[in-house]
Amino acid sequence: MNKLLSLLLAASLAFATPAWSALAPQAAASVDRVILPAEVAPERYEIRITPDPDRLAFRGHARITVTVARPTDRIVLNAADLGFGQVSLSGVSATPKVVLDAAEQTAAFVFPQPLSPGRYTLDIDYTGRIYQQAFGLFALDGDVGGRKSRALFTQFEHSDARRFAPMWDEPALKAVFALTIEAPAGQMAVSNMPTARVEPLPDGRVATTFADTPSMSSYLLFLALGDFERIQRKVGDVELGVVALRGQAEKGRFALDTAAELLPWFNDYFGKPYPLPKLDLIAGPGQSQFFAAMENWGAIFAFDRNLLLEPAASPAERQRVFTIVAHEMAHQWFGNLVTMAWWDDLWLNEGFTSWMESKAADHFHPEWKMSLQEMANRERAMRLDAGAGSHPVITPVRDVFAASSAFDAITYQKGQAVVRMLEQFVGEDAFRAGIRAYIARHAYGNTTTDQLWAEMERVAPRPVTRVAHDFTLQSGVPLIRAEAAPGGVRLTQSRFGGALLRGGTWLTPVRVAAPATDKTWVGLVSSPRPERVALAPGAAAVVNAGQTGYFRTRYAPELWTRLAPGYLNLESADQLGLLYDSRALGESGLSPLGDFLGLAKTAAQAEEPVVLTGLANELTALGRAYPATDGAAYRAYASARLAPVLARIGWDPRPGEGDNTPALRDALVRALSDFNDPGVRAEALRRFQASAGQPDKQAGALAQTVQAAAARHADPATWEQLHTLARTAGPSSERARFYRLLGSAKDPALADRALALALSGEPPPTTAPAIIAAVAVLHPDKAFDFAVAHRAEVEALLEPTSRTTFIANLARGSRDKAMLKKLDAFADTVPASSRSEVRKAATEIRNRRDFADRGLAEIDRWLAANPG
């Protein structure tokens, strides 16, 4: 599942968070899992659904073939928000007693006598709810030919299949699914497998039955129903399709073409052909605050902005669609064909597919420089991983309610970075051979991470497991210190962070390059194993050359003064790495903040758009450490670095400019707007007003950039113009975007209006949480207080297992000491399994306050000593 949207707020705040805190707890050796009893397991489900979208309800019947392994008087499975009618078991005359446990989301069918071991058929009549948030079976309203059209979709990861049918809703309990839906004849039904038959019903509706799925985990089951159309093409024996609301499917042509070029490449990479007869990409209208797309086997779901493109789509929008399609398609092998045994190993799904989306983009579109762009994701992971709110990549998960905390930057972005590091360490060919062997050995099964390392060890020329364990079984970020030594550089290792962070060691792959030569050194560094690298006298050295290692590098002053002057001659990845590390080290007190500020002057002269985008984002994030009323000197300094870059590339796209230049333009305008640059504010408002009321001029990346800048500095009249655009925009994704912009205003009074609007019933239920999250970026205390004061209303808009995370995240940008007490009070009201999300927020607030007390004064002293 692609968590692009759910991480959006976290990313914007994490970039502004100093990276140190108390030592994070390490992974426990074992955990007492709350799972279903082992006496009974499913083999096959036959599920028949009759939805009533207008009433937001459905009727269902489940016939489940089960195996009783040991005598038991009860069959226990998962069920949530389901009502039960008749229940019967083949060969047993007695009607079982139905015992529901709403807290554990289980239903127990209790029989008067123990069942003997053997195979049975369990028949269940039941009813359920259709939700208006994206979980379980849910409804989304879109436009078809100018009229509202309601479509149904499902979203089951990680534990919501139990809202669709009573079932064993755990990843290791795979079974075959046979699905039938009764629906109006004019609507299209889509599921994991092709349609097997369509039968007319006496009332004029039809019953669509789909072919049996392979044995698979329950969270991968999918169903959609609506006024859809499909575009399709055949690639080998597989039919690829894009499904969207009628009149929209042709906008999915780029996604379809992307899938068509990726499928043979994935078949070859994994060494096993895609095993299903079809693969659909299904677009749903609107958005979710919590996920962008989902890898349902044979039926990938994504919100429409992540699959459908307008003819004038920007390069960044095409990149987004490509990487989302690549991510979810990679899941068809990594996650669907071979599935983690439990949520502890979620990273086996998400870390690997996050890495694969970038690898695929580099293969098919090297001009995008996706691996370079993805360094920003590694940075997000490091900033979270250095704090007390972090967790190991492989984290014991006691129950499914705690699993929500695993869907974060550690699982996705750190996992992605660790995979990339290991691939470079053992070599691309050996790494691929290990993955192929893993897929072949465990197809249709469930695994743990060590089963992957076992396959890697058989083919890798270097030891994998020890390195992998160090980076996946403990939290934290290594710090490699480079010091001048006779004849070269001495490398030592410690834990990155402030004085409170101690302990931990990693066997870390390190690559050192001398920019003036073609010499490189590759080796392993750990706390008990320092290394010495030979260099010519006075030579500069880049540690973590190529930036594939997951660690921070601190250069001794003597080495920094050799390296920094040649910054513009370094490879782009190393330019970015020095920017990221110097800011993080400066914030943590391990290096002078002047190292970053001085480097920013030089970096502003770089040619690579991705590097300049990184510079703009780093300057913006550091600037947000200042209260709104302070930091004028810093804002002037940052504007002086970035304004000439914007002048050089211009406001308007130019013929022949690179694919990453529009994203740079966007980052520059947003950053300079954040710094209150008067010229940018005036030009953005002028351009916004010039296009207001002209929908044909509202499209495109530049228009979105201008709208965002106008929204940030909106007065009441501009805010109302944006509000009108939100109400009247055509595509649902455009409406959602304008509603989010309404929450981004600096004006506190407009932030209050946006919060009230979120709960007014006007925005779609899936969009309303995004408005509140947008307010939290600049007004975290206001957004958190509002959510707590209206908690029942806000939580009604949220997927149940994400409620704690959402509300806690609202507070993460706060600087107010009083917020810590508010978070403590909030933590007392949530399940213990989800309190780690509250701890993450509290840690960031403490860090921000600590940095404000020390770091801002250091910045101001440096600026005073370095005028201009």
What is the CATH class designation of the largest domain? Mainly Alpha
- Helical content (DSSP H or I, runs of 4+): 25-40%
The number of domains: 3
Total strands: 28
Gyration radius over CA: 27 Å
Main sheet, how many strands, which sense, barrel? 7 strands, mixed
Approximate shape: globular
Report the total helices. 28
Query: How far is the first residue's CA from the last residue's CA?
Result: 47 Å
Uncertain stretches: 4-30
* Structural class estimated from helices and strands: alpha+beta
Structure commentary:
Strands 4-7-2-1-10-13-12 form a 7-stranded mixed beta sheet, with no helix packed on it. A 5-stranded mixed beta sheet has the order 15-16-17-19-18, covered by helices on one side. The protein has a 4-stranded mixed beta sheet with strand order 26-23-22-28. The protein folds into 3 domains: 17-31 and 331-472, Neutral Protease, domain 2, CATH 1.10.390; 42-304, tricorn interacting facor f3 domain (Immunoglobulin-like, Sandwich), CATH 2.60.40; 565-865, Zincin-like fold (Alpha Horseshoe). It has 28 helices and 28 strands. The longest helix has 30 residues, at 836-865. Strand 1 and strand 2 (57-68) form a beta hairpin. It has 868 residues and is of the alpha+beta class. 40% of the residues lie in helices and 21% in strands.
